[in-house]
């Protein structure tokens, strides 16, 4: 009995020492998705070197991604998906603009022991030797925090592929967050994530480091014990991991290659809480096995998680929906309706009805434009085609009332269209057409619009545009015929069915 107690005490001290030597910070944006981070002591002091991080998500997800940066464009992204047979694939990727991230063969990452699929979770323990700089940016790890992003694709089923360049569908959810490094710095372990479990986190006291979590890593059959597809390639392949030089060899003889936990390792060697030698009797081993506080069962902890911008729900998503609806109403309904009225209607004061209706449409677009600028600034989309076209259209429409007034005044004076008339007409036609096209670009940029939404918008916008063009053609024919009749009348030959030109002169 004494020998057993001493063994359990020793194991408990070893577990505690392991956690103290290598601090691991955890953030869980949702109850199902968690990330962990360790910045070794040498990296934290110099700001440059290896870092370790873990991705954990349900194995039913199509993929989950963690990235460095403040937006998707230019970020250093790591995508995790299942590889089949209990394995996982980690795919380092980069992205230019707002497109699908592409495999980055220059990334130096290694998938470590503890990675795999078990108990409904896919887990990747990753060592990154190139996370200080990448093609889209750079960062240091000596500071107190850093900007990160994450995204998930929950629908679509498991990927089950070993290809690191596999196509991935657009995300269901994403966000930018600031990760506090207070609990992440310390240690020089070659794989600090093995003892970190798959969720849960230490807590800091006065920012001086994390206390050990009161949990025990699951061993045989644990989360992340499957073998893994490595995430390092030097020539664009995915065949082997690139080992990174370690500062010590204190705890892992399998450094640089993923392995399984030993098959005989069937029970923890340390109790999660309390002194292991208290109240020990013959029944305690069974009770202990039944009440083990495994780390992957802990409640998620968001220690150090400071959201910056969310792509799923919240005010940002509401603003995005409002922007799309208002802009669509302006360019697919209101502006075309006002333009059709001036061509086909012939009641007294139609020109002022046209002016008032277009002014109302412009006010609707002003609201949509303001929301669009807010969203584009928040998500760093101002360099994309959609917001650029939106700004150009906004400026053009700003001058349309002035040009319209000049057109009306000059027509009444000269009884013919002038340069102001043609400028007003063709700028308006170009603005409405661009606005309709830009709506489709906006749906594409939103990145999560359903295919049915694209189809519905395309059909409705296309039909309205064709009706509007038909109204323009019909209106021009009626105008030409009215002008001919007016000419005949002025020559003393009034025509039957004479159609006098409208007062508005369009």
TrEMBL record:
Chain positions covered by the region annotation Disordered: 192-283
Keywords noted in UniProt: Electron transport, Membrane, Signal, Transmembrane, Transmembrane helix, Transport
The Cytochrome b561 domain, residue ranges: 289-480
Database matches in PANTHER family: CYTOCHROME B561 DOMAIN-CONTAINING PROTEIN-RELATED, DEHYDROGENASE, PUTATIVE (AFU_ORTHOLOGUE AFUA_8G05805)-RELATED
Protein species of origin: Paraphaeosphaeria minitans
One Pfam family recorded for the sequence: CDH-cyt
Segments crossing the lipid bilayer: 320-344, 351-376, 388-411, 423-442, 454-474
Annotated ranges, domain DOMON: 31-153
Protein name in UniProt: Integral membrane protein
Compartments, as annotated in UniProt: Membrane
Lineage: Eukaryota, Fungi, Dikarya, Ascomycota, Pezizomycotina
Position of the signal peptide: 1-22
Feature: compositional bias, Low complexity: 220-244
Biased composition (Gly residues): 199-210
GO CC entries: membrane
InterPro entries in alphabetical order: Cellobiose_DH-like_cyt, Cyt_b561/ferric_Rdtase_TM, DOMON_domain
């Amino acid at each position: 009995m004494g020998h057993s107690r001493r063994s359990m005490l020793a194991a408990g001290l070893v577990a505690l020492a392991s956690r103290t030597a290598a601090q691991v910070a955890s953030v869980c944006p949702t109850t199902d998705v968690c990330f962990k981070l360790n910045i070794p002591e040498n990296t934290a002091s110099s700001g440059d070197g290896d870092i370790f991080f873990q991705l954990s998500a349900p194995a039913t997800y199509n993929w989950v991604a963690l990235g460095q940066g403040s937006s998707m464009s230019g970020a250093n992204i790591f995508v995790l998906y299942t590889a089949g047979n209990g394995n996982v694939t980690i795919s380092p990727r980069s992205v230019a603009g707002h497109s699908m991230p592409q495999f980055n063969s220059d990334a130096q990452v290694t998938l470590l022991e503890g990675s795999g699929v078990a108990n409904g979770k896919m887990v990747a323990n990753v060592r990154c030797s190139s996370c200080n700089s990448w093609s889209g940016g750079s960062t240091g790890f000596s500071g107190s925090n850093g900007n990160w992003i994450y995204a998930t694709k929950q629908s679509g089923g498991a990927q089950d592929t070993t290809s690191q360049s596999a196509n991935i569908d657009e995300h269901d959810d994403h966000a930018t967050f600031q990760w506090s490094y207070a609990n992440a710095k310390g240690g020089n372990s070659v794989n600090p994530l093995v003892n970190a479990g798959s969720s849960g986190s230490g807590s800091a006291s006065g920012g001086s480091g994390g206390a050990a979590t009161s949990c025990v890593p699951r061993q045989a059959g644990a989360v992340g014990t499957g073998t893994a597809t490595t995430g390092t390639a030097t020539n664009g392949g995915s065949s082997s991991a690139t080992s990174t030089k370690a500062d010590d060899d204190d705890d892992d003889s399998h450094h640089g290659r993923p392995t399984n936990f030993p098959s005989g390792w069937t029970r923890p060697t340390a109790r999660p809480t309390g002194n292991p030698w208290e109240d020990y009797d013959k029944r305690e081993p069974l009770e202990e096995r039944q009440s083990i506080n495994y780390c992957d069962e802990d409640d998620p902890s968001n220690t150090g998680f400071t959201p910056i911008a969310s792509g799923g729900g919240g005010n940002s998503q509401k603003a995005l929906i409002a922007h799309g609806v208002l802009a669509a109403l302006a360019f697919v309904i209101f502006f075309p309706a006002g333009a059709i009225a001036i061509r086909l209607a012939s009641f007294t004061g139609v020109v002022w009805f046209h002016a008032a209706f277009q002014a109302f449409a412009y006010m609707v677009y002003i609201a949509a434009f303001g929301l669009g600028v807010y969203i584009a600034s928040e998500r760093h989309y101002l360099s994309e085609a959609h917001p650029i076209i939106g700004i150009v259209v906004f400026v053009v429409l700003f001058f349309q009332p002035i040009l319209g007034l000049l057109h009306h005044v000059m027509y009444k004076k000269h009884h013919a269209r002038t340069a102001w008339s043609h400028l007003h007409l063709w700028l308006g036609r170009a603005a409405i057409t661009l606005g309709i096209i830009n709506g489709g670009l906006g749906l594409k940029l939103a990145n999560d619009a359903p295919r049915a939404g694209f189809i519905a918008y395309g059909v409705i916008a296309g039909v309205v545009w064709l009706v509007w063009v038909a109204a323009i053609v019909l209106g021009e024919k009626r105008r030409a015929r009215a002008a001919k009749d007016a000419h005949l009348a002025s020559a003393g030959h009034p025509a039957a069915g004479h159609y006098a030109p409208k007062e508005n002169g369009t």
